[in-house]
Amino acid sequence: MKSFRKIGVLTSGGDAPGMNAAVRAVTRAALAHGVEVIGIRRGYSGLIDGDLSPLRIRDVSNILNKGGTVLYSDRCPEMLTVEGKQKAIETCKSLEIDGIVACGGDGTFRGARALTELGIPCIGIPCTIDNDITSTDNSIGYDTAMNTVMDLADRLRDTCESHARCNVVEVMGRGAGDIALNAGIAVGATGIIIPEVPYNDDELCEKIKSGRRIGKRNFIVLVSEGVGSDYAPALAKKIQAVTGVETKFARLAHVVRGGTPTLRDRVLATKMGHFAVEELLLGKSNLVICERHGDIVSTDIAYALTADKLNKGIAVTEEEMAVFSDEEKAGMHALAKERRDDIKALYSIAEITNI
Ligand code: F6P
To answer: Fewer CB atoms inside 10 A, N or C side of the chain?
Structure first.
């Protein structure tokens, strides 16, 4: 079995609250095994450019509660090129980095898979506010993002109540409606509009009109960005025109990506960071650390990425599918279905409770 003397840790793609807690856990878990840790700055860009330095036990002190990422992050198109991957491998070889823990989303995992194929074992930790990694029930940063949206929407509700207004609130999530749906339930939004469930604006307007007739003063409508960037501002105009209720539009955007991580995200990041190191040092690689029904487990990166595609309705080639056993294929389809069913079931609860 490969023996590990030094590992790297990086954060890549859109940042997420709790990334620092993951970096801290990876560092402390590796040092506890006598393995040195190198902090790679700006994700794969730092690996390609050699922008890195050792992380010792005190270097990760006081970061558990910090938003953003102390290692900085980047989206790195160069990592998609043969030259970029080669440069990343050369950095690992020249610094004797035996393996890498990569914290981020699906793009980060594709980078990790490429490096593993080129001889540097990698393990991914899902860090994204979107919660769009199908193989894990929760990604790091998602809980904080939902709580931030809940807090901001509660504030908007206060002022809507004072002025008898409606506020259409657009939130991030890429193609996933998880943040909008859960935060929408938590604030009792009159409308929740997400890409996974068909929605009818006219019915929403009727709901607002009938609410106003029986004395409802405030209306919050949560929209996930995945339905299209022009949708929410246009909807705000339509609601005002059709219902006569003064309607404001707010795009929360990146504000939801910052801030101090919740307890849930700090604990999840610590468990996943610790487990990633345990798995790597056992000689395992090309894995994503996942939370499934409360347990921390690991899933093959190819399996996780293909399950994502099935869940999101992205075409999967026969060649891509051919590497999996029948049991794995059935497992991926079941996982994708479970995710879609969960969203629909939760949505139907919101339709009953959010009147
Ligand atoms: O994936 C995280 C995310 O914040 C998405 O919700 C959003 O669509 C995207 O990243 C924004 O990316 P950028 O930081 O490049 O503006």
So the answer is: N
Closest residue by Cα to atom 7, ligand 1, is: 174
Atom of ligand 1 nearest to the CA of 174: 8
Which one is catalytic: 15, 106, 130, 265?
Answer: 130
Q: Is 130 a catalytic residue?
A: yes
- Residue 199 phi/psi, 5-degree rounding, is -135, 150
Q: Which domain holds residue 210?
A: 143-258+342-353
What is the C-alpha radius of gyration for the chain, rounded to an integer number of angstroms?
22
- What is the Å distance from ligand 1's center to 270 Cα? 23
| Residues 114 and 179 placed together within one structural domain of the fold | no
Residues 136 and 159 in one domain: no
For residue 225, which atom of ligand 1 is closest to its CA? Answer: 8
Pair 83, 201 in one domain: no
Q: What is the CATH number of the domain that holds 77?
A: 3.40.50.450
Per-residue confidence in pLDDT tens, the chain, 355 aa: 678 999 999 999 999 999 999 999 999 999 999 999 999 999 999 999 999 999 999 999 999 999 999 999 999 999 999 999 999 999 999 999 999 999 999 999 999 999 999 999 999 999 999 999 999 999 999 999 999 999 999 999 999 999 999 999 999 999 999 999 999 999 999 999 999 999 999 999 999 999 999 999 999 999 999 999 999 999 999 999 999 999 999 999 999 999 999 999 999 999 999 999 999 999 999 999 999 999 999 999 999 999 999 999 999 999 999 999 999 999 999 999 999 999 999 999 999 999 8
d(CA 53, CA 74): 17
Residue bearing the CA closest to ligand 1, atom 10? 14
Number of domains in the chain: 2
Atom of ligand 1 nearest to the CA of 254: 4
Q: How many CB atoms are located within 10 Å of the residue 307 CB?
A: 24
CA dist 122 and 39 (Å) reads 14
30 falls within a domain: yes
- d(C-alpha 149, C-alpha 153), whole Å: 6
